[in-house]
Automatic annotation (TrEMBL):
It comes from Thelephora ganbajun. The lineage of its organism: Eukaryota, Fungi, Dikarya, Basidiomycota, Agaricomycotina. This is NAD(P)-binding protein.
Length: 311
């Protein structure tokens, strides 16, 4: 075989394997991989930022599927309404909750973890995240606003995971435990006007694989799995644009996330429409991509202005 024929075969094989993986992940994989985390007594899923959007849809889906859930929010009334809404979905489940404003600098993480120490938590889903949408220059944001965005997206999930890790590690020695981090496409593509959101999500992107490597450094002491979610546009409380193939509803997206559990992968694009979008974005020349991201930023601010007008 000459060099070019060999090269052609290797390249074809590479793309064939990629296609096979795509078909396997989105069409053929069994959808009950989450059951892996239901071994042992009364499994709990803790989901942060679960009074609205993707987090609330995840809590509802997992509760329906037999997990007990721990929900989290910052507003007492909204949290209680969420607990009641979830409890109504099943008679024999338990719904716990806790309040913490994730932009605060005085969260007692150890105290939160201690409260739930006796529970068999097998899923920790770091979902909370977001940004202020104000069309200001970088230096016009106050120092506190900058710190809040970093706490909201990067520090809260890091320090919450740190607080829960010792007890999750113990649990993982008898049955599987999964820690999930909800990321964003913006971790890979810099959207103008929200630089610290995109930078914080880039931090979150690296965290699961780093923690995974660290957990495996000392063999036999931990069996925790980690997963990063590449999340594109999803209709939620923040993104109020109509749902379509490229933008699923929060309920639809949550169902795809749960379907990805148990896949053993450290990074997933749970929703097929996002996978296709991501492939297209990756293939764009940089000058077109920059223009498209500028357009995205403008759309976000127009959407926010419309929302504020309504309120
Ligand atoms: N939606 C998208 O298009 C999209 C795209 C990429 C990535 N993501 C990521 O997906 C995750 C969920 O986003 P979402 O769109 O579902 O958000 P959402 O609908 O706005 O819901 C956010 C949840 O987080 C809570 N929350 C917000 N700020 C908080 C704070 N300071 N302290 C405590 N809780 C707070 C909210 O509580 P309240 O109910 O009190 O507001 C709500 O429960 C985030 O990490 C986001 O970055 C979303």
């Amino acid at each position: 075989m000459d060099f070019f024929a060999l090269l052609g075969t290797v390249i074809s094989l590479y793309y064939l394997l990629k296609l096979a993986d795509f078909v396997w992940f989105y069409f053929l994989r069994p959808s009950d991989g989450y059951k892996k985390y239901q071994r042992g007594p009364q499994s709990y899923a803790l989901i942060t930022g679960s009074t609205d959007g993707i987090g609330k849809s995840l809590a509802k889906d997992l509760y329906r599927k037999g997990f007990n859930v721990i929900v989290h929010g910052r507003d007492e009334k909204k949290l209680k309404a969420t607990v009641d809404e979830i409890k109504a979905l099943r008679e024999d489940g338990i719904v716990e909750s806790f309040i913490a404003d994730v932009t605060s600098s005085s969260i007692d993480y150890a105290d939160i973890a201690k409260r739930f120490d006796d529970l068999n938590i097998t899923l920790l889903i770091n979902n909370v995240g977001g940004t202020y949408l104000e069309s200001k220059r970088f230096e016009e944001w106050s120092e506190n606003d900058h710190l809040s965005v970093i706490r909201w997206n990067a520090l809260f999930p890091t320090l919450l995971t740190r607080a829960f890790l010792p007890s999750l590690r113990k649990t993982s020695l008898s049955h599987p435990v999964l820690i999930v981090f909800n990321g964003s496409f913006s971790a890979e593509f810099a959207i103008p006007r929200i630089p610290l959101y995109t930078a914080s999500k880039a931090f979150v992107h690296r965290l699961p694989s780093s923690l995974s490597a660290d957990e495996r450094f000392i063999a036999g002491q931990s069996n925790i799995e980690f997963m990063y979610l590449h999340t594109g546009s999803v209709q939620s409380n923040t993104i109020t644009e109509p749902a379509d193939f490229s933008r699923p509803t929060s309920d639809d997206y949550a169902a795809h996330i749960v379907k990805a559990f148990g896949s053993g992968r450290e990074e997933v694009v749970p929703y097929i429409g996002h996978r296709i979008g991501l492939t297209i974005i990756h293939s764009l020349p940089s000058f077109i991509l920059r223009g498209a991201l500028k357009g995205e930023a403008n759309k976000l601010f127009i959407m926010e202005a419309k929302k504020s007008k309504k309120e």
